[in-house]
Each structure stands twice: as C-alpha cells, then as structure tokens.
Amino acid sequence: MMHSFIPPERFFSYLTWTEIQAMPDKENVVIIQPVGAIEQHGPHLPIIVDAAIATAITGKALAKLDTNIPAYALPTLHYGKSNEHDHFPGTITLSAQTLLAVLMEMAESIYRAGFRKLVLMNAHGGQPQIMDIAARDLHAKYDDFLVFPFFTWRAPHIAKELLSVKEVEFGIHAGDAETSVLLSILPDQVQMEQAVAEYPPEMPEDSLLSMEGKLPFSWVTRDLSQSGVLGDPTVATKEKGDRLLESISSSWTKLIEDVYKFRQPKAWKD
Q1: Residue 116 three-state SS
Q2: What does the alpha-carbon distance between residue 16 and residue 222 come to, in Å, rounded to a whole number?
Q3: Domains of the chain and CATH, by start
Q4: Mind listing the pLDDT tens digit for each residue in 226-238?
Q5: What is residue 172's DSSP assignment?
Q6: Alpha-carbon gap, residue 201 to 204, rounded angstroms
Q7: Which of 40, 75, 82, 249 is the most exposed place for a label (fewest CB within 10 A)?
Q8: Is the CB of residue 176 less than 8 Å from the CB of residue 232?
C-alpha cells in the first residue's frame, strides 16, 4: 500500500504518464509535496513523526476535498534538514543546500509536466525557511509557477482548546500535540511508558530574546533538552489527537480549495 494515508485516487504516483499528459486544466491542478523529517522525538516516539504527520494530514484533507477539485499528493519526502537533532542517534539529516536542491529539482519536474500550482506541505519546524527560499526562487524563475510554502501547523486548529498555555508556547517537539496525533495515526508505535516531560530553561523575564518567534537565538536540541523532548507528552491522549487531526485537516481542505481558486496578482502589466 504505497499511498499510505493518501486516498489512492489522489496519489500522483499511481497515475500513468499518458493520464498525466491528457489531464485537463493542468495549470490549476494542485500538486502537494508533503515534507517531513527522520529525527529523534524523545524516548517514546518513533523517528518518523514529522513525515507521518505530513502524510496523514494531507491524506485526511484530500479525503474531504470536493471530488471536482483536481488535487494530487506526491510521495512524502521523508528526509529533511534536522541537524539540530543530530546529537541523538537515529536522526538522518540533509544539509540545507541538499534539501533546497531536491525541492527545486522536484518542482521543476512538476513544471515540465505542465502543472503550475505546487504546495510544499512541511511538517518539520526546522526547515520553513528553506521552503520559503524554494518557493520564491521558483516563482522568480518561472513567473507562471505558483508555489505555496506552507507549514502544516500554521493552518487553523484547536490546539489552544486542548493544551495548556505552557504547552502551546513551549511544547514544540515530541510534546502533547505530536504525541496525541501519533496516538491517533500510529498508536502501535508510541511507547507511552517511556514518555517524559521536559521544558527548555526559561529566559530572564526582562529579555527580548526567545527560543522561537520574532527575536530568536540559535540553538540545537541538546542545548535545551536531555531527553530530546520539548514539552509534556505524558498527558497526551488519542482523543486529543483525533480532535486535532479533524480540525487541522479540515483547514487543509480549505487551503487546497483556496490554492485551486487562486490567481496570481499582476500589478505590472507586460
């Protein structure tokens, strides 16, 4: 079952080249590239977390999508830029340059096939900047190529209703949200008996710096955590994971619809 969570009729790799060649209105067909990572997620979660979440949310969103909207998912890109975690065994990381090259060359292949709308559906927090660079450079090179560098968790969802205030701010890796989602999609791969809570050291109250946000400092995971966890996975539940998946996948369905309808603004007339 190569399509995993993706509905088989929406899995790009199941198409033949003749079906792709004959596809109507290709400039408005939405192609989605799920992007994840293979990296440590504490002692309780498998290293496939980000790739699994990207694939599952893409699949659930496509399953809800109006059948009249043409949209297809590419095979998930499992490896990402994960060097912030490479002190922990099992993490596999590409360099920023390699990941950027892979995204650019994949996208140019999609462009050559006649498609003009590509969504980068990235679920790993360590690489949104690379998605942004790829999208801008591709559109600068091909002005009719519309590339959307989306971060999975920036779509509207109900995490604030389900998680503590502290967890929403600091539970950024292998905490309540990710663990709950994995309990929903891959429960047999979660070892809750190994789950530990660990938060990063707090910054001085008068400091303008933050771990993430508008004025961040650079860090690698071992600077902030001994376990590899940033958050509290011990309170995670499948019920929370089910609700998170439902809310965020619904938002992703709306995003795909918006991309399908989108027309590039043209202030400058050639």
Answers
A1: coil
A2: 46
A3: 27-261 (3.40.50.10310)
A4: 999 999 999 999 9
A5: -
A6: 10
A7: 75
A8: yes
